[in-house]
Amino acid sequence: MGKNEALWRSRDRSFNDGRWQYILCDTEYSSGTYGFESTGADADHFRTALEDHPLFASAIRNPSFQKLFLDALHTIGTQNLSYEAVDTALESYTAQWLPLIKDYYLRFGDTSDKWEESLQFTRDFFRDRYTSIITMAEADIAELQAE
Q1: Helix, strand, or coil (residue 23)
Q2: Residues 6+ apart with CB under 8 A from 8
Q3: Fewer Cβ atoms within 10 Å of its own Cβ: the N or the C terminal residue of the chain?
Q4: CB burial readout 125-136, b (16+ within 10 A) else e
């Protein structure tokens, strides 16, 4: 496990039937915020997960899990984190935070250009990410099924 993820379960079966729980946090790096190629919309994080996370690599070999995973990826990519949903949220946050951000950058000797640049990286990422990741995930799963 990395420093931004955790896996746990309660031995008290009254809590979620004692099933394993997974949490992933501090994810802005992986959503294009900083404009790095390694975190761009076409970065194959699905392949990275297969290579770096043995629990996921094992689970994704199960056909039932594959379907659940692809269905969840589809829902997240077309609804929760669609370009339109993200852009609407960014506009709302910008209206609320921009006056504070300008003061923040003035205080620490920078300009608010970083804010706009970061927003644009994030918009670009979410504009292209779903198409990229669903294509990669489906191809990698098909490859696993062929093994």
Answers
A1: strand
A2: 20, 21
A3: C
A4: bbbebbebbbeb
- The rounded distance, in Å, linking the Cα atoms of 66 and 87 is 29
pLDDT in tens, 73-115: 999 999 999 999 999 999 999 999 888 887 887 788 766 667 7
Q: What is the DSSP letter of 76?
A: I
What is the pTM assigned to this prediction? Answer: 0.77
CA distances from 54 to 1, 86, 126 (A): 10, 31, 27
Do you know the residue count of the chain?
147
